[in-house]
Amino acid sequence: MISKLDHIGIAVESIDDAMEFYEALGLNVEEIEEVPQEGVRVAMIRCGESCIELLEPTSEESPIARFLARKGPGLHHLCLASTDVRSDDTALRNAGFRLLRQEPTRGAGGCWVQFVHPKSAGGVLVELSEKD
């Protein structure tokens, strides 16, 4: 079950360069983490109940590097907090929606995550995330 907007993911060439803008607004990076299986460094910036997630590729083969090559820096995805990502995964599959992974996997912060293909979500990549 979806409970709230968890974060907005933004693809950036450099976390260090991008965070200057958010710091100028009085927001602070709470943590930076590398997610090797995704080929990405992630910086979380708290903004009220939600976060802004800056995504920097760590290799040219990462999905974020490919996104940047095609579209340049900018909005990458919306993440919805789930209380049961496996149940949401099953419900979406049963309703005919296209998901990107065979099953939920571990993501940043150790959360269970699944992604809904943009073609099934009005052109927006949607991440579902369940905190462990």
Largest sheet: 8 strands, mixed
Using the alpha-carbon principal axes, give the shape: globular
* Structural classification: alpha+beta
Total separate domains: 1
The value of Rg in angstroms is: 14 Å
Indicate the mean pLDDT: 96
What are the low-pLDDT stretches, counting only 5+ consecutive residues below 50?
Answer: none
| SSE order, one letter for each helix or strand | EHEEEHEHEEE
CATH architecture: Roll
The CATH C-level name is Alpha Beta
User: Would you count the extended β strands for me?
Assistant: 8
Helical stretch count?
3
Distance between the termini: 15 Å
Question: What's the arrangement of strands in the largest beta sheet?
Answer: 2-3-4-1-5-8-7-6
Assigned CATH superfamily: 2,3-Dihydroxybiphenyl 1,2-Dioxygenase, domain 1
Helical content band: 10-25%
Say what the CATH topology is.
Answer: 2,3-Dihydroxybiphenyl 1,2-Dioxygenase, domain 1
